[in-house]
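Lab notebook: predicted structure, single chain.

Context: the supervisor wants predicted structures on file for every construct in the current expression panel, including those that have not yet been purified. This is the next one on the list. No modifications to the sequence; it matches the entry in the shared construct table.
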Amino acid sequence: MRRRGRGIVRTTSAAVWCIATVATASSRPAFIPGPGSKATATTTLTRNSRRKRHAIMIPPPFSRERVVIESIPSRIFEFGVQRFASDWKSYCAIPIIAGFVGWFTNYLAVQMIFYPIKWRGLPIYKVEGEPFGLLGWQGIIPAKTLKMSEAMVNTTVNELLTMEEIIQRLDPDVVSRILLPQSGLIVRPFVDELLADRPKFLSNFVTDYTSDTNRGMIKQRFAEKFLRDLTADVQENINTICSLRHCVVGKMCSDRSLLGRLFQISGKDELLFLVDSGLYLGFALGLIQLVISLYFDNPWTLSLGGLIVGLATNWLALKWIFEPVNPLRIGPFSFQGLFLRRQNEVSADFSKFFAEQVLTSRQLWKSMLTDPTTLPEWEKLIANRFATFTSEVTLGAVNLKLKSRKLKAASARVCATLFDYLEGLHDYVDQALEIDQTLRARMMAMTSVQFERVLHGTEAKKADHQVNRENEATKA
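Prediction complete. Output recorded below exactly as produced.
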């Protein structure tokens, strides 16, 4: 009787196993034996025989919960396949369209950063210093040139360059030789203003000096001495007669395309990656959107997905460009922001553009001679130098008072016309100051945190705090 019972259990177990397997494969609910069936009797028999040494346990696949759970994924997958097959062309278009949307939105975003240079739209309402108005747009960088150029001077240029250092590279002897042919014209306003009521011999004395040929009683060596001493005065007082901030910001604001071109040249690879990444990331996100649309066919899902694709591609691309700031090693791999990995190349592009287009000799002299904050100091310097020089070469016969109204007026006229006579000096100054080489070397020596601020100036304050923490840690 016991052997017969065991045979019934084995036969029934095999039957139930087959039923469960077939039910799972066909994605149908598994057969669950009801009351009074042989399977129930067998199960009861098994339970009653657990206490016995030779009792037989039913395998886990016979569990009702496991059979039902295993059938759910197959049903979901089968449903998705059927939906995809019913309109596969439309579903295949989803990742393609998402890739295009990602690329186009990134491209449009980059264009809106730099263009248009001037605000375009209906002149109803325009927010000063902002790219938008009531109906119109201006490139973000052109609109924020004043703020961004000031931030660049404060966080980058001032840390790398000092006028007191680079102006010392000028050789007064070379400057005097270059400007010697123009020396008479430079001081001509002093002659017209100050010597008109002097004795005739003094007027002739200085008039011969101010002629283009520099012949007469004042020899060429006196003219060279005047120019050498004037150059030395400029070098000694450069901090009061030159504002690096006014020079850079003034140049940027006079041509609002400059700052944008500087960023486009320095960050050309990063901007290209920002645009192209929209295609790849958009396509990848579109695949996720495709799967979701198979099970949620509401019209708003595609619109919401497009919004998420546009935002996500921009956000991810910017993260990859600037983060991580410092190299992050994971096993044999090293990760760092794309912009930061190109530090040497960016340094070369940035410094070359800055030296050739922004901080040039022409811009330096123009800024010094027109800046309302430094022009009074220039007038004092010129007046003092001419008064000292005149007293020396005339052996005290002409003693000009520094507070004289005429001397101040003549000095103002000299400053107003001085820039016109410096044309031959610019090539030498650009070469002697070595702004390109100085900027490049010091930018390459920057830490990653400091260098990140060159293009990512909006995080300057955060970076400053991190730099301070690094410096404190180094000192400790």
